[in-house]
Design the sequence.
């Protein structure tokens, strides 16, 4: 079982805003990063640290954190954002990584 | 440009071992950790461990302790992940990923499918 919990599926209307959440005790101490994965492809880092985007990631992706919950927000979702999203952080020991179970985002 | 190129698909019998390679290019190999992550078909991502290519230091997820070994050959900028005592549940795509930290995996290999079947 994962120490980070995500909703299995979320949907959003085209052009609307969606928030994907990740819960876990370790998030009180460590930031989460977020990865986008499309079918048959390797994951792509979209958010890391407090709220940083790697080069090439659109600014409609943003991250935030409060208490034991980290969030990925997509403002103005596009059809190409339809994918699985995974959060990633440290486990409760702080020494190892851990992924959330993933959230399948559908853009309607 | 940064690239991580992994070795090809493998088919192994239960009880055997598999060694997957990950060749790095486009950056200084010893400057960033290499993490390994696996994904069973239709399932989520699972973090396996990390290796510092400069020191050789490693850290493994408890689930894989005693079965996984991560090594490197700095002369050819290549990292390796060996998993032993394979069982059917180890059938998955295995990814290497460059990590400024274990929570920031900024470049990923293309993945290597390991199938464990009798």
Sequence:
């Amino acid at each position: 079982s994962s120490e980070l919990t995500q909703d299995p599926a979320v949907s959003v209307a085209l052009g609307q805003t969606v928030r994907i959440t990740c819960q876990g005790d370790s998030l009180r101490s460590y930031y989460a990063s977020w990865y986008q994965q499309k079918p048959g492809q390797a994951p792509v880092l979209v958010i890391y640290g407090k709220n940083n985007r790697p080069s090439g990631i659109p600014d409609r992706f943003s991250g935030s954190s409060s208490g034991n919950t980290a969030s990925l927000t997509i403002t103005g979702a596009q059809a190409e954002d339809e994918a699985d999203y995974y959060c990633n952080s440290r486990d409760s020991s702080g020494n190892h990584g851990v992924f959330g179970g993933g959230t399948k985002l559908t853009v309607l | 440009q940064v690239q991580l190129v992994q070795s090809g698909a493998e088919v192994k019998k239960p009880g055997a071992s598999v060694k997957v390679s990950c060749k790095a290019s486009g950056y200084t190999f010893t400057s960033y950790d290499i993490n390994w992550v696996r994904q069973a078909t239709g399932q989520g991502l699972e973090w396996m461990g990390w290796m510092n290519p400069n020191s050789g230091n490693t850290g493994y997820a408890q689930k894989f302790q005693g079965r996984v070994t991560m090594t490197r050959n700095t002369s050819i900028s290549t990292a390796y992940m060996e998993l032993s005592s394979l069982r059917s549940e180890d059938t998955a795509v295995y990814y290497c990923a460059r990590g400024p930290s274990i929570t920031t995996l900024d470049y990923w290999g293309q993945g290597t499918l390991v199938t464990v079947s009798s």
